[in-house]
Write a structure and sequence with these properties.
Layout lengths: L5 H6 L11 H8 L31 H25 L7 H23 L6 H26 L3 H21 L7 H28 L9 H31 L6 H27 L4
């Protein structure tokens, strides 16, 4: 099962020479709902949850994913808070803050791409990404709250938490079924959404104003809701990827990859909600 998250969709969980589960290739070859990694010493039977073979101590667990995700998100939150507090907010220096935000976003993007194309997860790269992404989010949030729409940052944070909790609950209750068709639909919708946003940004850059109007007014509200919905779908796909990784015996180090992907998805949702609440506040 391929996730919509760019980190997971690059390669899924890895397979090394020790016989760990290689998600995408073997799962595609299996073509069935049975566990294609039953001979893996870390694998469990998805139907019963019991070990399919004697289990060693190096298999990824949900606790591993939770702890690594907490570390990654914690790093992001700390640097976002420091950027909010330490960087200038007066009108004379706001452009300097924007410059710092853009620089941090570029560094975060480069680190994310390096990690995406690496064979194995690198905690240093992942935490570095979180740190620079936090600086970017801290500046954007500070400027938005100070000059554009006071109060929307709290709304966006609470909204992100609510989306995460709602999707997790719906996934655990099996109200959301992550199938191949569901995955294909989300991937196609995400591609169309990103292309439209890129086109809107290019028109705004060269033509001025709001570009094609996809990020302002009534149309901006519609696209903001679509963006949040896509983020929720990304979460469902990521939960499925993590669940399969645990069941199929991915190595413990892959929990860093899960944390990386979940963090990227939550950043997506937060930014979409921040823009949506900004439009709804009447100050776009």
């Amino acid at each position: 099962m391929r996730s919509s998250n760019p980190v997971f969709s690059r390669r899924g969980f890895s397979r090394d020479n020790g016989g760990y589960a290689g998600f995408e290739a073997q799962h595609a070859q299996a073509g069935t709902a049975t566990n294609p990694y039953a001979t893996n010493p870390y694998a469990t039977d998805p139907a019963t949850g019991m070990p399919a073979a004697p289990v060693r101590g190096n298999a990824m667990t949900i606790d591993d994913v939770v702890s690594r995700t907490a570390m990654t998100l914690g790093t992001l939150i700390v640097t976002a808070t420091l950027a909010w507090i330490a960087l200038p907010v007066d009108p004379a220096n706001v452009n300097k803050s924007y410059g710092i935000a853009i620089g941090a976003a570029i560094v975060a993007f480069v680190l994310a791409m390096i990690q995406t194309f690496k064979r194995k997860p690198s905690p240093a790269l992942i935490l570095g990404y979180a740190a620079f992404e936090g600086v970017f989010l801290g500046v954007i949030s500070m400027v938005t709250s100070t000059y554009i729409s006071p109060g929307v940052v709290v709304q966006a944070v609470l909204g992100t938490m609510c989306v995460f909790a709602a999707v997790l609950f719906a996934y655990k209750m099996r109200w959301i079924r992550v199938t191949r068709r569901f995955t294909g639909f989300v991937m196609a919708a995400a591609l169309g959404f990103v292309l439209l946003m890129v086109a809107n940004s290019l028109f705004a850059l060269f033509g001025g104003g709001d570009g094609l109007g996809f990020r302002s007014g009534g149309l901006g509200i519609v696209f903001g809701l679509v963006g949040v919905l896509l983020g929720a779908c990304f979460l469902a796909l990521d939960f499925k990827q993590v669940e399969d990784g645990v069941n199929y015996g991915a190595p413990r180090e892959e929990s860093w990859l899960a944390a990386f992907g979940l963090t990227m998805t939550l950043v997506w949702i937060y930014l979409e909600l921040l823009r949506l609440f900004q439009i709804l506040s009447g100050d776009d």
